[in-house]
Design a protein that fits this description.
about 35% helix; alpha/beta; seven-stranded mixed sheet
Length: about 220
C-alpha cells in the first residue's frame, strides 16, 4: 500500500488560487512514487477573482473548494474533514491563493493571519512528526507557524531571475532560517520534517520547476 499524502489546494489559477502547473507536478510525482494523493481545499470564498488575461481583479465571486475541484478532476474533500491519523504526509503547492485564500500574507506580509483550518492542519502534521512539503510561496505558512524552522523560497537577493526574493528577507524577520537554493534543489529541515523548494518563485524554464518539485515530493514520500 502506497503512502497516503494530503495535497491542499487554494483555488485554480496562479493569481488568485493555486498554481496549476505546480499542483499538476505534485500529483504526477506522487503517482510516480507510488503514493496516493488525497486532495483537499477549504470551503470558503476566494479573496477575489483575477482575470488572468488582463491581470486585473473582477467583480466575480468564486469558491476555493469549487475552483480547486477543477484541478482534482472533482475528486476532492473539504479541508475541514481532513484527519491526520489516516495520512502519512502533507504537501501544499504554491500560487497567490496561499497568500490570499489560505492566509492574509498578500496584504499583511509577516503580520498576516493564517486560516484556522490551514494552521490546525499544519500543526497536526508537525505534532505527529509527519513530513510537510511546501513549494513556491507556501513556505511562508511554516515561517509564520514554526519559529526557527529552516526553509527555502530560492534566493534572498532580488534580480530578474528571482523577482520575489524579498519574501526570503521577510521570512527571516519571522525568525526562521532561509537557505538559498537553486530552483532544481530542495532544502530539508530534518528537525521539523519540512521539505521546501522554490518552484515559480524563480523565473526559470518550466521543466526545471517540475524537476525541483519532483525532488521535494520524492523526499516527502521517503520521510513518510
Amino acid at each position: 500500500m502506497g503512502k497516503r499524502v494530503a495535497v491542499v489546494l487554494a483555488g485554480c489559477g496562479v493569481y488568485d488560487g493555486r498554481e496549476i502547473h505546480e499542483s499538476s507536478a505534485v500529483l504526477v510525482h506522487l503517482s510516480r512514487e507510488g503514493a496516493q494523493a488525497e486532495v483537499y481545499a477549504p470551503d470558503v470564498d476566494q479573496m477575489h477573482v483575477v482575470d488572468h488575461v488582463k491581470g486585473q481583479p473582477t467583480q466575480e465571486k468564486r469558491n476555493v473548494l469549487v475552483e480547486s475541484a477543477r484541478i482534482a478532476r472533482g475528486n476532492i474533500k473539504d479541508l475541514a474533514k481532513l484527519d491526520v491519523k489516516g495520512l502519512d504526509a502533507l504537501i501544499i503547492p504554491g500560487g497567490f491563493g496561499v497568500a490570499k485564500n489560505l492566509s492574509t500574507w498578500a496584504t499583511q506580509g509577516k503580520n498576516c493571519i493564517i486560516s484556522k483550518e490551514v494552521e490546525d492542519v499544519l500543526k497536526a502534521f508537525h505534532a505527529a512528526k509527519k513530513p510537510i512539503g511546501l513549494c513556491c510561496i507556501s513556505p511562508v505558512l511554516a515561517a509564520k507557524i514554526f519559529p526557527g524552522c529552516e526553509l527555502t523560497v530560492g534566493h534572498d537577493t532580488e534580480c530578474e531571475k528571482w523577482p520575489y526574493a524579498k519574501t526570503a528577507e521577510t521570512m527571516k524577520e519571522l525568525g526562521c532560517k532561509h537557505v538559498n537554493k537553486h530552483v532544481t534543489e530542495i532544502h530539508v529541515d530534518v528537525k521539523n520534517k519540512l521539505v521546501t523548494t522554490s518552484a515559480f518563485m524563480c523565473n526559470a524554464p518550466i521543466h526545471e520547476i517540475y524537476d525541483g518539485i519532483g525532488k521535494m515530493v520524492k523526499e516527502v514520500v521517503r520521510l513518510a
